[in-house]
Design a protein that fits this description.
Elements: H1 4-8, E1 16-20, H2 25-35, E2 40-45, H3 58-67, E3 71-76, H4 82-96, E4 101-104, H5 119-144, E5 151-154, H6 164-167, H7 170-189, E6 195-200, H8 208-214, H9 226-236, E7 246-248, H10 249-255, H11 282-291, H12 313-325, H13 328-334, E8 336-343, E9 348-354, E10 360-363, E11 372-378, H14 379-386, H15 392-397, E12 402-405, H16 407-422
Parallel strand pairs: 1-2, 1-4, 2-3, 4-5, 5-6, 6-7, 8-11
Antiparallel strand pairs: 8-9, 9-10, 11-12
Length: about 425
């Protein structure tokens, strides 16, 4: 039997949580944390059939929730579909008698520039992140108003209008900030009735989605989803007058007296990748990113970068090695011309032509217009990228690399790099 003493500490026992995107990642971690208290969880997500690249379905998540001590209701929900949300909300109320907490976690991401983002992707991000969050909130709020401890928690960032967070991925930022604007508006609209807050991670979090974005080596620079689950639990345990806050996981847990954050690191002691949208001041973020080995996109390159590069040097030897790997087959399978505008110690413009003949490389502008231009990259990072020490996707996400042009061709180059690493550049 459970003692009364233990029950006092099960703050979410008997609460009903409606969590979007709870079949994996952060949504599932929050579900399992609440389930250990004996909460009821509605897993509202799209994945009913196993995905080829992403683990977990709503049914496997439901099994884990029940194994952890909670009750689960798995609902197939595309949060862009009003009828599907409405039906899931009704099923939840029929089964558990109401809804106490809504966690808007479902989200779509594409870190691409305006010209590189197809409208289908724009619609997906706005449809899931912004409209889906608004719509789910709208349909759940009537039930929250009947709860004794009603909460809405959106997994979205503080509203930070520094242009650096817009310029590389305007569509994604607008969609994520749409979720944050729901917090800003609804917290005020339902003040005294429902607590409405936002939570965002200070560092990158290891999830299947992150592995797809950043490639295999990324997880070392991440924390586990448990840090978000623990912070969410702390917020959801507070009274309903705690509202309108844009919270960062680490700050929430420091307030709870937690000092050891190594417990959340995938690789304790490894430098962590700072998450987007969090710069107290751009200068402090520059320092922070540089400590993590990144070159922020918004930092002006040193003026010495206009000096002519010394002959020879590491860049030349990298391009010599590239010459050794490219051939007609590589050209046939790639069909792209790449230009690299490098800054730093060995600044200069270089090209890689994988469109004609057996391919060619050289200093200066390519003979024909480049399909992909890679800029803001230091010569040092360029060497690291081609020797396999830095993944291009990571370089792009952390601001070390700006890609203009055809993203599909940029990804093809990543495959070429892995071939070069096997050839031991």
């Amino acid at each position: 039997r459970v003692s009364m003493f233990a029950l006092c500490f099960r703050k979410l026992a008997g609460c009903t949580l409606f969590i979007t995107g709870a079949s994996r990642g952060i949504g599932k971690a929050i579900a399992l944390k609440a389930a250990r208290d004996g909460a009821n969880i509605i897993i509202a997500a799209k994945t009913a059939e196993p995905h080829p690249k992403l683990p977990g379905t709503i049914y496997t998540a439901a099994q884990e929730v029940e194994a952890a001590g909670g009750k689960a209701l798995a609902c197939v929900v595309d949060i862009r579909d009003e009828q599907q949300i409405g039906e899931a909300v009704q099923k939840a109320v029929d089964k558990f008698g109401g809804i106490d907490i809504l966690v808007n976690n479902a989200s779509a991401i594409s870190l691409t520039g305006t010209l590189e983002t197809p409208m289908k992707k724009v619609d997906l991000m706005l449809g899931i992140n912004l409209r889906g969050t608004y719509l789910t909130s709208k349909l759940v709020i009537p039930h929250l108003l009947k709860s004794r401890s009603p909460h809405i928690l959106n997994l979205s960032p503080p509203l930070n209008l520094n242009p650096v967070w817009f310029k590389n991925h305007t569509a994604y930022t607008m969609a994520k900030y749409g979720m944050s604007m729901c917090v800003l508006g609804m917290a005020e609209e339902f003040r005294g009735q429902i607590a409405v807050n936002a939570l965002w991670p200070k560092t990158a979090i290891q999830t299947a989605a992150m592995d797809m974005l950043g490639g295999e080596g990324i997880s070392k620079q991440c924390r586990t989803a448990d840090i978000i689950a623990d912070a969410a639990y702390a917020i959801l345990s507070r009274p309903k007058d705690y509202t309108g806050h844009f919270l960062v996981d680490e700050d929430v847990l420091k307030e709870q007296g937690i000092q050891d954050f190594d417990q959340y690191a995938v690789h304790p002691g490894h430098p962590l990748l700072p998450d987007f949208f969090l710069d107290e001041a751009p200068e402090s973020l520059v320092k922070q990113m540089e400590q993590h080995g990144a070159t922020p996109a918004f930092k002006p390159p040193p003026s010495s970068s206009s000096a002519p590069p010394p002959a020879g040097g590491p860049i030349e030897s990298t391009f010599d090695a590239i010459k050794g790997v490219i051939n007609e087959d590589v050209v046939k399978s790639t069909q792209g011309v790449y230009q690299f505008d490098l800054s730093g110690e060995h600044a200069g413009v270089w090209f890689l032509d994988l469109k004609s003949g057996s391919g060619s490389t050289g200093r200066g502008q390519p003979p024909v217009k480049a399909d992909v231009v890679m800029t803001t990259m230091s010569s040092d990072d360029f060497s690291k990228m081609f020797s396999g020490k830095l993944k291009p996707t990571m370089a792009f996400m952390s601001g070390k690399l700006r890609i203009k042009g055809d993203m599909t061709l940029a990804i093809k180059l990543e495959k070429l790099m892995s071939r070069m690493n096997k050839a031991k550049l």
